[in-house]
Design brief:
This protein has about 280 residues and is of the alpha/beta class. It is built from 13 helices and 12 strands. The chain folds into 2 domains: about 120 residues, Leucine Dehydrogenase, chain A, domain 1 (Rossmann fold, 3-Layer(aba) Sandwich), CATH 3.40.50; about 140 residues, 3-Layer(aba) Sandwich (Rossmann fold), CATH 3.40.50. The structure holds NADP nicotinamide-adenine-dinucleotide phosphate (NAP). NADP nicotinamide-adenine-dinucleotide phosphate binds next to helix 5, helix 7 and helix 11.
Length: about 280
């Protein structure tokens, strides 16, 4: 295989850990290639993607704020990307741009790995948030047969839109009614940006949460969010956001470099250390 190069496209993109992840796998598999950051401002994303086939890259990850632009620019998109109207992974097929969304895969793969059989035990899930990441979370939960998904969002209209798009098993709900919903939930997912370093805290009380319910926080900076710490202290099974980040990278690497890489504890520790987070015993 000749030298191959992929990139992550975003704005800003300096914070992205994707180069660390993909370079780890390139070195592990002794592949002659590289993975770099491309900071592309919104006014340039259209022309950047239009000329992607001649850029020298074999493919790309796409992050905030360009996932919707990548969806529009792709000549072919997989069904999951069509459902989410967002693309986070691009590759070339005979010079044409193809795209998918691997956030759903990443979300589910880490949940399966951490709590095997969770879907058999989950009748009701509560999802906090209705932004881009929440769309992937809700899609994944529905896809895996969760019977009812309550979407709690500050801006109720976004939760209503999500429910209208993804079907009858989704219901919009309000933060004010959260204690009642938590009594019935088998799984609570935080897909807001609350609790992330630099953002306001996620101020919810887990006292009402059903015994044994699992808590998944997709925020990964810090790795152990206050939500996870509180859930852990109450004896709930917890799932952190770093695994989702690592697993969502797997399908892209396989597309571009021809080898399906593994999410190992070595990789996890490297990225956690880079994030400045101490690993909690799992
Ligand atoms: P987004 O599209 O901007 O959505 C942000 C969500 O957070 C919205 O639901 C928003 O509610 C809510 N929110 C923000 N500030 C709030 C506040 N002060 N009070 C109440 N709600 C607030 O962002 P996103 O792309 O979905 O990302 C959300 C989080 O997921 C980020 O922390 C991101 O890092 C993380 N994430 C993690 C992974 C992973 O691999 N682990 C992947 C993707 C994203 P409104 O609709 O009312 O504004």
């Amino acid at each position: 295989m000749s030298f191959c190069r992929a990139c992550v496209i975003g704005h800003p993109v300096a914070h992205s850990r994707s180069p660390l992840i993909h370079r780890h796998w390139l070195a592990e598999h002794k592949i002659d290639g590289d993975y770099v950051r491309e900071d592309v401002p919104p006014e340039k994303i259209g022309s950047f993607l239009a000329s992607f086939a001649t850029s020298g890259y074999v493919g790309a990850n796409v992050t905030v704020p360009h996932k919707e632009a990548a969806f529009r620019a792709a000549d072919r998109t997989e069904p999951v990307a069509v459902a989410l109207k967002a693309v986070n992974t691009l590759w070339l097929e005979q010079g044409r741009l193809a795209g998918t969304n691997t956030d759903v895969y990443g979300f589910l793969a880490h949940l399966d790995e951490t709590l095997p059989g969770w879907d058999k035990r989950t009748g009701i899930a509560v999802v906090l948030g209705a932004g881009g990441a929440a769309r992937a979370v809700v899609y994944g939960l529905i896809d895996r047969g969760v019977g009812r998904v309550l979407v709690v969002n500050r801006t109720r209209s976004r939760a209503e839109t999500l429910a209208a798009e993804f079907g009858k098993r989704i219901a919009p709900a309000d933060f004010a009614d959260l204690p009642q919903h938590l009594k019935e939930a088998d799984l609570l997912v935080n897909a807001t940006s609350l609790g992330m370093t630099g953002q306001p805290p996620l101020d919810i009380d887990l006292a009402c949460l059903k015994t044994g319910a699992a808590v998944y926080d997709i925020v990964y900076v810090p790795l152990e969010t206050p939500l996870l710490a509180s859930a852990r202290a109450r004896g709930h099974p917890v799932v952190d956001g770093l695994g989702m980040l690592l697993h969502q990278a797997v399908p892209g690497f396989e597309r571009w470099f021809g080898i399906r890489p593994k999410v190992t504890t070595v990789l996890r520790s490297r990225v956690a250390a880079d994030l400045g987070s101490k690993e909690h015993a799992r």
